[in-house]
Amino acid sequence: MKQPALLLRDFGVGVRIGLTLLCLVILGGSAVSGMYLRDHHSGRDERAGFSVDDIRAHYHGIRSKSPMVVALDENKHPKDLDPKLRAALLDWLNGDRLTQDYDNFDLGDMAPAEILADNCISCHDANATGPDAYPQLPLRYFDQVKAASVSRDIQPVSEKVLMASLHAHALGIGSVCIIAVLLLALTRAPSAFKGLFAVLIGAGLLIDLAAWIPVRDNVTLVWAIMGGGLAFQAGTVLALCTVILDLWLPRGPRE
Ligand code: HEC
After folding, report:
1. Which residues of the chain have pLDDT under 70?
2. pLDDT for the residue 254
3. pLDDT tens-digit map of 196-237
4. How far apart are CA 106 and CA 41, in angstroms?
5. Which residues line ligand 1 (CB under 6 A)?
6. Rounded to the nearest 5 degrees, what angle is found at the Cα of 48, between the Cα atoms of 110 and 30?
């Protein structure tokens, strides 16, 4: 196999130490930015935890009706619910006294907390079992009920902030990636691997960033952001690890 004329391994010890440390800085930086991304975006969808919806909310926005209203009103779920109770729940959900009336003593048996306890939590509880149980959506406590009741109208990040962030990411990360690919090219790794990692980095970053603007209109491009981001992160980590290894692995007999 033909090796490049210039090899990282031929640099002096000092340069190789410096390059190794800088590679570690970039690896550390991408770990930190992964954590930052998680903290920064989780909760963006007004639901606990970090999920695809957080990314969706940030880049595209989320507009959805209250799942409770959809179930009760549009889907007539559960089928055997007394129409009077269904109407009472819907009035409550569509009104503006969600918190005040939830367990309002004056409402007696018509208090939403009572109706839910009698008609819903046999299936909608974290411990509910049985063929019809739906523990994914517990409705025992007010917090749980509230999360399923509110409609969401989450605006995506403003265009101005998006543009500022896009240009910083494109120039900053783009430059780091060019350096990573160049260093990778000067290693003794098999060219098939070098080529694969380089394409992962270049294509991944391009696909991720190129989707940021059109995703505002087309929500499926969220997967391009996630897939591209993952590919370029994986490519960068693999490339930098290859570089660090190559800087210190002994020269073979051929060289
Ligand atoms: C016999 C069991 C059972 C009862 C009783 C029941 N549910 Fe459900 N519920 C389910 C199952 C199973 C699903 C998921 C499948 C579906 O959507 O039909 C569900 C889905 C839902 C959803 C939609 C969840 C989503 O992911 O969008 C809501 C909201 C809901 N139920 C509210 C209620 C309310 C309010 C009551 C009481 C008035 C109630 N359910 C009573 C079994 C039940």
Report:
1. 1, 253-255
2. 57
3. 999 999 999 999 999 999 999 999 999 999 999 999 999 999
4. 41
5. 67-68, 71-72, 77-78, 81, 116, 119-120, 122-124, 132, 134, 137, 148
6. 175
Instruction: For 10-30, write each residue's pLDDT tens digit.
Output: 999 999 999 999 999 999 998
Contact 234, 35 (CB under 8 A): no
Place of tokens 């409770």: 68
**Residue 205 to residue 170: CA distance in whole angstroms:** 8
pLDDT of residue 170: 96
Closest CA to 220 of 44, 59, 50, 63: 59
Smallest CA-to-CA distance from 250 within 25, 27, 7, 22 is with 7
Nearest CA to 174 among 232, 227, 231?
A: 232
Residue pair 44/54 in contact by the 8 Å Cβ criterion:
yes
CA of 119 relative to ligand 1 center, distance in Å: 10
The angle subtended at Cα 209 by Cα 206 and Cα 211, nearest 5°, is 105
**Residue 109: both structure tokens together:** 């048996």
